[in-house]
């Protein structure tokens, strides 16, 4: 016992404690494991915009589909898990799933592609964005997947406009998820200086009516969400590129009240992290879970898609900036 007391009095012990605290302060960041993609899904001009699961298949949704050969892409979950276990460097080649749809470039003025996707059984729900004469618009539309035939049919007559709370360049409804008997959509910009009392817009599954759900302020952009679990919890991408500072007018970042910036987040101005929320009693609030900060590169990555990968972590995807990137992030 005396020896331990003497050790505690030594300056080296204080140095060890200080070192431990420094390491702990920078321990929040997670490594980003890139999963190389092969085939046409790796074409950055598609601008991958969202991820979701359909049963055991990961669905990759481009913002700008090829209307000469309209399709989304799928990867079997088993293939992803096998790749991660093998630590392979070989690319995964996603398979196409064909789309039957009208040419929205001709029917939606200022059409800017697909922004978000989710499934409810065999029904698929999508968000479409447009910019017409300086005014941003978001639309929700419904479809059906027939996995045996390998076709997703989009029902043009189901198209409904989602009321935008504010008009900000390139900002619209970017996230969508199923919750009980509702399809819930989230606006991209919810900062305290631009959207004082944020609301989610929740549609019934026929898209014939909607109501508002209380949300809370979140600085920077919210670009996609995971599925809701059985406790009503889900994760969201929270991303910031400093070039959008004038548009977003960031206020006080409440996310950092009970945690510290990771090492690379203390070095660079951009932000790449995941935040957990819970939907309950007609409101959506942050949980007490710590944010998951990603290890940053000098060049920011525009994360646009997010899903959970069982209990091991998350799969995420980048659009075209700096390039198409599918990645795994450990929880």
Give a written overview of the molecule.
The protein has 331 residues and is mainly beta. It has a single domain, classed as Tachylectin-2, Chain A (5 Propeller), CATH 2.115.10. It has helices at 2-9, 11-25, 77-86, 104-107, 245-248, 263-267, and strands at 29-30, 32-35, 48-54, 57-62, 71-76, 95-100, 111-120, 123-132, 135-146, 151-162, 173-179, 182-187, 189-190, 199-204, 210-214, 218-225, 233-240, 271-280, 283-286, 292-294, 303-309, 313-318, 325-330. The strands form 4 sheets. The chain has an 8-stranded mixed β-sheet. A hairpin with a 2-residue loop joins strand 8 (123-132) and strand 9. It is globular. It starts with a helix and ends with a strand. The model is unreliable at 1-8 and 15-26 (pLDDT under 50).
Give the secondary structure arrangement, pairings included.
Elements: H1 2-9, H2 11-25, E1 29-30, E2 32-35, E3 48-54, E4 57-62, E5 71-76, H3 77-86, E6 95-100, H4 104-107, E7 111-120, E8 123-132, E9 135-146, E10 151-162, E11 173-179, E12 182-187, E13 189-190, E14 199-204, E15 210-214, E16 218-225, E17 233-240, H5 245-248, H6 263-267, E18 271-280, E19 283-286, E20 292-294, E21 303-309, E22 313-318, E23 325-330
Parallel strand pairs: 1-20, 6-10
Antiparallel strand pairs: 2-23, 3-4, 4-5, 5-6, 7-8, 8-9, 9-10, 11-12, 12-14, 13-16, 14-15, 16-17, 17-18, 18-19, 18-20, 21-22, 22-23
């Amino acid at each position: 016992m005396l020896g331990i007391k003497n050790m505690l009095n030594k300056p080296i012990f204080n140095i060890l404690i200080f070192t431990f605290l420094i390491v702990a302060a920078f321990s929040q960041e997670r490594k980003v494991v890139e999963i190389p993609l092969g085939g046409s899904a790796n074409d950055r001009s598609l601008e991958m915009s969202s991820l979701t699961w359909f049963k055991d298949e990961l669905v990759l949704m481009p913002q700008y589909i090829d209307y000469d050969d309209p399709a989304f892409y799928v990867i079997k979950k088993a293939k992803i898990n096998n790749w991660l276990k093998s630590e392979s460097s070989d690319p995964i080649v996603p398979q196409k799933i064909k789309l039957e749809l009208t040419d929205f470039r001709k029917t939606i003025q200022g059409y800017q592609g697909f922004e978000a996707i989710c499934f409810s059984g065999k029904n698929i729900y999508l968000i479409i964005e447009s910019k017409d004469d300086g005014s941003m618009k978001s639309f929700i539309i419904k479809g059906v997947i027939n996995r045996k035939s390998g076709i997703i049919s989009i029902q043009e007559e189901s198209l409904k406009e989602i009321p935008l709370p504010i008009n900000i360049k390139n900002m619209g409804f970017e996230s969508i998820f199923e919750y009980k008997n509702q399809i819930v959509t989230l606006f991209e910009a919810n900062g305290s200086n631009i959207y004082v009392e944020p609301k989610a817009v929740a549609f019934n599954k026929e898209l014939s009516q909607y109501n508002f759900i209380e949300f809370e302020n979140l600085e920077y952009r919210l670009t996609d969400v995971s599925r809701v679990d059985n406790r009503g919890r889900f994760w969201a991408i929270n991303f910031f590129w400093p070039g959008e500072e004038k548009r977003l007018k960031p206020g006080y970042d409440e996310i950092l009240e009970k945690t510290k910036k990771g090492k690379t987040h203390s070095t660079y101005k951009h932000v790449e992290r995941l935040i957990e929320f819970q939907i309950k009693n007609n409101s959506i609030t942050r949980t007490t879970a710590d944010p998951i900060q990603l290890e940053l590169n000098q060049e920011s990555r525009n994360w646009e898609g997010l899903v959970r990968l069982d209990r091991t972590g998350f799969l995420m995807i980048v659009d075209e900036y700096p390039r198409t990137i599918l990645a795994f992030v450990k929880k």
